[in-house]
Amino acid sequence: MTSKIEVIMAAYNNVRDMRLVFEGYLRQENKDFTICVTDDGSGPEVKALVDVYASLGLSIRYLWQEDEGYRRALALNRAIESSTAQYIVMTDNDCIPSRYFIEDYHQLLAENTMLFGRRVDLYEPASNLIRNHTISLDAMESPTWLLIQAMKKGLKRPEMGIRFPSFIFNLLNRKKRGAIGANLAVPRVALLAVNGFDADYEGYGMEETDLVWRLEQAGVIAKTVLSRCALFHLYHKEKAQSCKAMEMFKHKRECGRIECINGINRLSSNTSPLSKQGISGV
């Protein structure tokens, strides 16, 4: 299935939260999208879950690579290279989309523009209310619930999950802000022009920062989206940024290269085992 939008979801185990994420995509108002789960070496449970939700109607394809450490950049490049969509939305398998997530992106995506979506960060107690089905995904999006949980210190940035009227939306998005991980939308042609992610980044952190910097240097316009395209990020212990990755980014930025060397065009010569399976929902 060819679609204007493909959601590329980096995955590594964590089927408990991924099930909730898929439930979020099942309830989208706009069904015109596909999903690519690009798996950085999980066991068979992730593929089994993908099969279940494909049978329930989601259009999903699944990529897998050997577990040789944290290689998110390589996994994402494989998904971008093999996609047929016009626009790529990159996220993670612990981020539940709002009901209007896809519809908002359909309305806002534009050529030569990358969009920085936002997310509501749920702390552990609020996350467990959702994981235990104490509250529904519909209730999770209620402005009242979001504000009450924020007052209880159950989450931060509740305003990112509230769909304000258009005039407030326009005011909120006048100012340019930086990217927040797990919610980035980019035209696929722009990603190919900079050769995708730099797979030199192995170990947690900086691969997305590096990509955004190179896209901006290539002339892609960056826009922030508040009050639309919202994700709800389920709690997990924070990972520490790799010092090596931060030093690498500093060096690469000083060199000023826009098209990375170890990117999408290296895939044909990469010898790491890769499993592909296309799955179409109803």
UniProtKB/TrEMBL annotation:
Gene3D superfamilies: Spore Coat Polysaccharide Biosynthesis Protein SpsA, Chain A. The keyword Cell membrane does not apply. Residues 7-174 form the Glycosyltransferase 2-like domain. The keyword Transferase applies. Keywords: Transferase. Pfam families: Glyco_transf_7C, Glycos_transf_2. Residues 177-236 form the Galactosyltransferase C-terminal domain. This is Glycosyltransferase. It comes from Vibrio diazotrophicus.
